[in-house]
Amino acid sequence: MEGSGRPSVFQAAVLVAGTGLTAFLYSVYRHHAHVARGLQGARRLRLDRELRDVLLEAPGHCVPYVAIEGVVNSVKDTLSSQFVDDCKGVVQRLTLQEHKIVWNRTTHLWNNYEKIIHQRTNTTAFNLAPLEGGTDIAVQVMKPLMATELSLETVHKKFHSSVQSFPNVIGHYISGERPKGIQETEQMLKVGATLTGVGELVLDNDAIKLQPPKQGLHYYLSSANFDTLLKRQETCAKLWKLLTVLFGCATCAFLFFLLRKQYLHRRERRRFKRMQEEFRQARERLIREVKAKGGEKLKNICVTCLSSNKSCAFLECGHVCSCSECYRALPEPKRCPICRQLISRVVPLYYI
User: Fold this and answer.
1) Nearest to 199 by CA among 3, 332, 9, 45
2) Residues 346, 316 contacting (CB under 8 angstroms)
3) Can you say how many angstroms the Cα of residue 28 is from the centroid of all Cα atoms in its chain?
4) 5: three-class secondary structure by DSSP
5) CA contacts within 13 A on the Cβ side of 73
6) CB–CB of 81/185 below 8 Å?
7) Nearby residues of 295 by Cβ (< 8 Å), 6 or more positions away
8) CA 13, CA 8: separation in Å to the nearest integer?
9) Are the beta carbons of 65 and 38 closer than 8 angstroms?
10) 28 vs 14: CA distance, rounded Å
11) Is the whole model's pTM more than 0.90, yes or no?
């Protein structure tokens, strides 16, 4: 807190940063809470013969947000793994990721750095069939790459280390970048995998389709069951809520601290002004009394207590304005009451 009672620049920056961080955490919490509420309101349907009747009775042959579980089946062709034999799927993602160590000029440390240099995703049409089988009902999954969560199984991962010669090593130390190698990864959504789909269910020309929902709801194609998916989102929302409350309370406590400091400063200023006013009134009263008596000369009265005679001179300023008792009562470092200059020496005065 500065002398004027206002917060310092650092305190103001901390308050603004705390407020901004609390607002950010609150926005993240609201987003996750909205997702959790959407999942709670999702209608859970079974893949059976009654599913078509449900859609026929729904307005526009559409249920806005449903959760449905089934087994992944390809509609036509399947995708084969490039590295694993007899591995078939409907979604394939190939990733090449570069790993290297980069010199940080600020911390003077080597830090790991990862960068995706190539990624390709292949898809083919697929649907969800009943878990138990025994029926020809199926739900065609539309636009799987738009899903917020798309569960893919890693079927191949291999790291290709960089082969470096001595001149290359010297060059890497000079440039500040040391390559470690390339990691090759293949992920697939396998045929026969159990999948939980959460989205909009529509009946389109006798075909049942699961597609991305509207109204800002999320699209899920997860290997976890619906209860696990819902619990995960609720836990995430509770965590962000807890962080929001903690940072919000900390920001409010800091704001209360600043307001209390300002209140105490203003109260001290009012007390000081009241003392000045009392001092001025006492001085005027004493002057009137001295004039009425016609005794002591006003110029010899101590400017601090207005009761004793001046008995010391302050150096180096040379002011004669105080008695010895008031001089000893001055706070350290002692300053002249007239000019506020530091007092280096005191010369006592004696009246004859």
Assistant:
1) 45
2) no
3) 9
4) coil
5) 15
6) no
7) none
8) 9
9) yes
10) 21
11) no
Residue 344 near residue 316 (C-beta atoms within 8 A): yes
Q: Which of 233, 140, 235 is nearest to 195 (CA)?
A: 140
E strand or H helix at 15, and its extent?
helix 9-40
Cβ proximity of 322 and 337 under 8 Å? yes
- Amino acid identity for residue 101 in this structure: I
Asked whether the beta carbons of 97 and 149 are under 8 A apart, the reply is no
What pLDDT digit, counting tens, does each position of 142-159 carry?
Answer: 999 999 889 999 999 999
Tokens of 9: 């620049």
pLDDT tens across 42-62, in order? 999 988 888 888 888 889 889
Buried b (16+ CB within 10 A) or exposed e, 95-132: bebbbbeebeeeeeeeeeeeeeeeeeeebeebbbbbee
SS (HEC) of 68-85: EEEEEEECCCCEECCCCC
